[in-house]
Amino acid sequence: MFKKEEQRYDVISYTSEENATLKEILLDKLNFSVRSLSKMKRNQSVLVNGTFKKPSTTIEKGDLIEVKIEEDMANFMPQDLNLEVIYDDFDLIMVNKPPFIVVHPTKSHNINTIANGITDYIIKRNEKVKIRFVNRLDMNTSGLVIVAKNAYAHYNLSKDMSDDKVIKKYITIVKGIVKDDFGTINEPIYKPGEDSIKRVIDDRGQESVTHYKVLERLNDATVLEIKLETGRTHQIRVHMSHIGHGIIGDELYGYVDEELINRQALHAYSLEFNQPRTKESLKFKAEIPQDMKELIEKLR
Fold first, then answer.
1. 205: which residues sit within 8 A by CB, 6+ positions away?
2. The pLDDT value given to residue 38
3. CA 221 – CA 176 distance, rounded (Å)
4. Which of the residues 138, 164, 202, 291 is marked catalytic?
5. Is 245 exposed, middle or buried (0-12, 13-18, 19+ CB in 10 A)?
6. Residues 5-47: pLDDT tens digits?
7. In CA terms, which of 27, 142, 143, 275 is 20 to 30 Å from 113?
8. Does residue 150 lie within any of the structural domains?
9. Would you say residue 70 has pLDDT above 90?
10. How far apart are alpha carbons 85 and 121 in whole angstroms?
């Protein structure tokens, strides 16, 4: 049992509810990977009732298992970017990313990224955390980004992502009037070349499924709620373009009119998933940003 009040970002605490081996509990109850067990043994980072024990040790009901998390912080330059942090616990931070900001530093964007802002945030909270992103958004897409505070949280959340256990919803504004109130696009997405940024619909690609629902029909435009079943690069942008309703402001796949909006009108507005440690259901929503509100008003 995970007692929420006992959890810390640098220690995972679990009170055994049964008699079993330590290895069984670490793998089956705490969802650690097999690979991580050898590291725990090497670093002597797993304690039972305050004493280091090997994975083969028999655990009794009521024993306290503690796994120490010792990590070096990534070498991101801290910057106070006034990020909107909408949730923070011992395993994860949820950020509402504004448009025009990169999630992770690259050669062309090595400062003013979400990673720089989160580094500043965790230093001010006196935490020693290695930042790991569970999901990423394009620079010009706004919305919810999950930052894991440890390898354990990252492993479990990433697994839930790949197993489609995370419910991801977006709001977008597309060109033209979408006739059907609901629809599903099931078309494989393919990267045509090693250096290609643009993705295409191609039978050689990965299975990609996008569900959409009409929220409002405007003047030659439609506001859609998008629910992703898979999470391919540029999936929403490629699929909307494929059905003839490119996202307004999308330079690569959609319809560009800088008098309307100067970026793609796409916002990751809702995420639902289980907390990686306690398994409680977490639900987050981020209000659509001002530029998309103004676009809707212009198109009305």
1. 188, 189, 190, 191, 199
2. 87
3. 4
4. 138
5. buried
6. 889 999 999 999 999 999 999 999 888 888 888 888 899 999 9
7. 275
8. yes
9. no
10. 9
Q: Does some domain include residue 130?
A: yes
Range(s) of the domain holding residue 213: 167-268+292-299
pLDDT bucket at 272, cuts 50 / 70 / 90: very high
156/79 same-domain check:
yes
- Look at residue 285 and tell me if it is in a domain: no
Tokens of 12: 């995972």
258 or 80: whose pLDDT is higher? 80
Give a three-class secondary structure readout of the chain.
CCCHHHCECCEEEEECCCCEEHHHHHHHHCCCCHHHHHHHHHHCCEEECCEECCCCCEECCCCEEEEECCCCCCCCCCCCCCCEEEEECCCEEEEEECCCCCCCCCCCCCCCCHHHHHHHHHHHCCCCCCCEECCCCCCCCEEEEEEECCHHHHHHHHHHHHCCCCEEEEEEEEECCCCCCEEEEECCEECCCCCCCCCEECCCCECCEEEEEEEEECCCEEEEEEEECCCCCCHHHHHHHHCCCCEECCCCCCECCCCCCCCCCEEEEEEEEECCCCCCEEEEECCCCHHHHHHHHHHC
Determine whether 138 is an active site residue. yes
Q: Is residue 278 in a domain?
A: no
Residue the block writes with tokens 């992770």: 104
